[in-house]
């Protein structure tokens, strides 16, 4: 009798393991989708980190910059950004003069940097002093001047060419921004000398190879970011 019972137990069919197999399949599938999702997130993050930024919203305007703003943000400002803002956003400021070196080579790079600086300075001053009406624009002493009737403020933006940086002498109520690149600078930075009303915007190289902008563009855009407050 015992032998028949043992034989019956041995003959009893095993239950199929479909449930366990399905569970393992779903678990593996879930892990695959999870890994794919994590990989996608990191891929997008890495792509965004590598992507250059050349535009920034300023008030109602979308400003375009020549240099990558991620890299421009890392350009050092000496002695501090606060000093630069005080110099160029002062109520006593009446004229900004952009000074370019007298060079035959790379003149186009200096011209482009000077245009970007003067244009965006105008945008910044418009946002600060134009409340209800557009400024009156006129020429005076080789400079383009803006008169803001709302705030009774006049500010002029001019350009000069210099042979020796020592010849740059700012008048009362004036700040000179000297653009220095290539052989005129061994670093990329923004240096302010408030006692001389002088700001040096320096770019170590004026080579655009592989990126479409120069070190001087980086320094110019850094100056603008400081004034915008970014």
Could you characterize what this model shows?
With 230 residues, the chain is α/β, with parallel strands linked by helices. The protein folds into two domains: 21-51; 55-228, no CATH class. Helix content is 40%, strand content 25%. The strands form two sheets. An eight-stranded mixed beta sheet has the order 3-9-10-8-4-7-6-5, covered by helices on one side. The protein has a two-stranded antiparallel ribbon with strand order 1-2. The chain starts with a helix and ends with a helix.
Helices and strands in order:
Blueprint: H1 2-11, H2 18-50, E1 55-58, E2 61-64, H3 69-72, E3 77-78, H4 81-88, E4 95-101, H5 107-129, E5 136-140, E6 143-148, E7 153-162, E8 174-181, E9 189-193, E10 198-203, H6 215-228
Parallel strand pairs: 3-9, 4-7, 4-8, 8-10
Antiparallel strand pairs: 1-2, 5-6, 6-7, 9-10
Helix pairs in contact: 5-6
Widest sheet: strand ordering:
3-9-10-8-4-7-6-5
Apparent shape: globular
Kindly provide the radius of gyration, computed on alpha-carbon positions and rounded to a whole number of angstroms.
32 Å
Q: How many β strands by DSSP?
A: 10
Q: Extract low-pLDDT stretches.
A: 41-48
Strand residue percentage: 15-25%
The average pLDDT value, as a whole number, equals: 85
The number of helices is 6
**Helix percentage:** 40-55%
* Structural class by sheet pairing and helices: alpha/beta
